[in-house]
Design a protein that fits this description.
Helix content is about 5%, strand content about 45%. It is mainly β. The structure holds dTDP-4-keto-6-deoxyglucose (T46).
């Protein structure tokens, strides 16, 4: 997967009579070393999440069940992607504002991430983000 802004990527799916399997490999599908993964689930109706950017963090996001809308904004372009296929992932790079909306009740949003958790890497104010993205 390349690091193009807001470009959903179709992952290779291996399907047989038992069902489907998707594998993500560092170097082939993930353009960074994965140091952490987390997942978001059981999101309440009308409970959007995100509303921040990261200074340096890189992530691969995909819904392994259900779906949500992912809004991405690099300071110049805003786009919304519906993530609702376990075989479709999107790369989210540094200095990208993200919001997640319209979670289905069964949604499980999986993130594969380039670094450990660090609150200091977050930009949680949109005006600050716009200023930093422009500089
Ligand atoms: C992102 C979007 C897509 C931790 O303690 N460790 C972790 O690894 C993470 C991700 C969060 N937390 C704590 C920090 C907060 O107290 O969990 C709480 C909820 O985190 P936050 O409000 O940042 O969750 P979201 O859904 O708004 O954002 C998350 C990620 O934080 C963020 O990196 O890109 O999902």
């Amino acid at each position: 997967m390349d690091a193009t802004f807001a470009k959903p990527v179709t992952l290779k799916k291996i399907t047989d009579p038992r069902g489907s399997l998707v594998a993500l490999e560092q170097g082939r599908d993930i353009p960074f070393a994965v140091k952490r993964c987390y997942y978001i689930y059981n999101v309440k109706e009308d409970a959007p999440r995100g509303f921040h950017a990261h200074k340096t963090l890189e992530q691969i996001l995909l819904c392994v069940a259900g779906g949500c809308d992912l809004l991405l904004d690099n300071g110049k372009t805003k786009t919304t992607i519906r993530l609702d296929d376990p075989a479709t992932a999107v790369y989210v790079g540094p200095m990208t504002w993200r919001e997640m909306h319209n979670f289905t009740p069964d949604c499980v949003l999986l993130a594969l991430v380039s670094d450990v958790y660090d609150e200091g890497d977050y930009i949680r104010d949109y005006d600050d983000f716009k200023k930093q993205a422009a500089s």
